[in-house]
Write a structure and sequence with these properties.
Order of helices and strands: HEEHEEHEEEEEEHEHEHEEH
Distance between the termini: 41 Å
Strand content: 25-35%
CATH architecture of the largest domain: 2-Layer Sandwich
Keywords: Hydrolase, Magnesium, Metal-binding
InterPro entries: Inositol_monoP_metal-BS (IPR020583), Inositol_monophosphatase-like (IPR000760), Inositol_monophosphatase_CS (IPR020550)
GO biological process, one term: signal transduction
CATH topology of the largest domain: Fructose-1,6-Bisphosphatase, Chain A, domain 1
Largest sheet: 7 strands, mixed
Shape: globular
Number of strands: 14
CATH superfamily of the largest domain: Fructose-1,6-Bisphosphatase, subunit A, domain 1
Enzyme class: hydrolase
Structural class: alpha+beta
Oligomer: single chain
Cofactor: Mg(2+)
Bound molecules: D-MYO-inositol-1-phosphate, calcium ion
Number of domains: 2
Number of helices: 7
CATH class of the largest domain: Alpha Beta
Helix content: 25-40%
Length: 268
């Protein structure tokens, strides 16, 4: 993507994310209409829909040739990543939004011909903007994030992951994952995939492991983590398909092989 065009899109996207964030904060105590989607714990609110439709109408007006993929379905149905594609999660961590009124994020990844050019993750209530441009470094607000420091072993690593890895499941042998959890220093579960990527980029966790994430959960995070030298793959160590769901590992490259080894042993 041309540098000047990217710069213009980046500034515009950041301004829209800030505007959407202000709107959410202003309405945070308003009564919520909460619906469920695939199961009783899969929540969606009027604010998820309002926020996504805000982005979609702005993008369609200013950039009519760009494509949009959004969780709540206001975007397009894509079969390829050709051209410029905005991948939007209007509220990542809806359960936190509903129950905690914090710990959720707006996440936008902008890809061009399949390359992640821009990543923006906004922790709305903490007012922290994580943002990156391909090959231009990653930032938390105005501060450039440092490259991930070397960790010699996974014994010192804190990994973001949830309890599903340790319960009986269809993907992996939970007993091997229990061994993994015993070996690392600790786990964290933040309830927003986007924030887990942002926290990895910030260096406050060392990796994040998640089953079955959608492109909008990871699109921005991949760009931001990539800019601090971290890597994101599926749990077999292969490149993600951005048009499908993936179970993912994103981490400091120093511990990638060790974690992939556990996943290989655990795979059903
Ligand atoms: C969810 C969050 C959560 C992850 C789920 C996602 P949503 O996104 O990122 O942390 O475990 O798999 O679906 O639905 O709140 O946007
Ligand atoms: Ca959702
Ligand atoms: Ca999400
Ligand atoms: Ca969402």
């Amino acid at each position: 993507m041309d540098r000047d065009i990217r710069e213009e899109i980046y500034e515009t996207a950041l301004a829209w994310v800030r505007e959407a964030g202000v709107n959410i904060r202003n309405k945070i105590n308003d009564p919520l209409v909460v619906d469920t989607k695939s199961n009783p714990n899969d929540l969606v609110t009027t604010m998820d829909k309002e926020t996504e439709s805000f982005f979609v109408s702005r993008i369609k007006e200013k950039y009519p040739t760009h494509s949009i993929v959004g969780e709540e379905g206001y975007g397009d149905k894509l079969t390829s990543m050709k051209g410029t594609v905005w991948i939007i999660d209007p509220i990542d961590g809806t359960m936190n939004f509903v129950h905690q009124k914090r710990n959720f994020a707006i996440s936008i990844g902008i890809y061009h011909d399949g390359i992640g050019e821009i990543g923006i993750i906004y922790d709305v209530m903490a007012d922290n903007m994580y943002h990156a441009k391909y090959k231009n470094g990653a930032y938390k607000n105005d501060v450039r994030l440092l490259a991930l420091t070397k960790k010699s072993n996974i014994e010192e690593a804190i990994i973001g992951m949830n309890h599903f890895w340790l319960c009986e499941n269809r993907l992996v042998d939970e007993r091997i994952m229990q061994k993994f959890v015993k070996r690392i220093r600790g786990t964290r579960t933040y309830g927003s995939a986007a924030l887990e990527f942002a926290f990895l980029a910030e260096g406050i966790i060392d990796g994040y492991l998640s089953m079955s994430l959608s492109p909008w959960d990871v699109a921005a995070g991949i760009v931001i983590v990539g800019e601090v030298g971290g890597g994101t793959t599926d749990i077999n160590g292969l490149q993600l398909n951005m048009l499908e769901k993936n179970s993912i590992l994103t981490c400091n490259m120093n511990i990638q092989d060790d974690i992939l080894d556990y996943l290989k042993k655990a795979k059903k």
